[in-house]
Specification:
Elements lengths: L2 H4 L2 H21 L2 H27 L5 H30 L4
Helix pairs in contact: 2-3, 3-4
Length: 97
């Protein structure tokens, strides 16, 4: 990544990634009724990272190979978060016996 992009787009991506990790941590330890909300925030943060990465690629700050690898990993994270949210929503709707 060029130096100028490292301190703008690159820094934003890095900060959002750290925020994503923090949200996942908070969701993991949240009470059941609050987990879904935290996971939705994490999904949103993941989407923002994907968008910023796309901008970096379009401006040629990131090579195609790196972009494809990172996009694939972010896609996997999104699927995991979506599955986690779906599981939590089912637990919340299902009465405990």
């Amino acid at each position: 990544m060029p130096r100028i992009a490292r301190y703008t787009t690159g820094a934003r991506i890095e900060n959002h990634f750290l925020d994503l990790l923090e949200l996942i941590y908070k969701a993991y330890y949240a009470k059941l009724e609050n987990k879904s909300e935290k996971i939705v925030e994490a999904i949103s943060k993941n989407d923002i990272i994907k968008y910023l990465l796309q901008i970096a690629f379009e401006n040629k700050f990131v090579k195609e190979k790196e972009y494809l690898e990172l996009s694939q990993k972010l896609q996997e994270v999104g699927k995991i978060l979506g599955g986690w949210k779906k599981g939590i929503d089912i637990k919340i709707k299902t009465p405990v016996k």
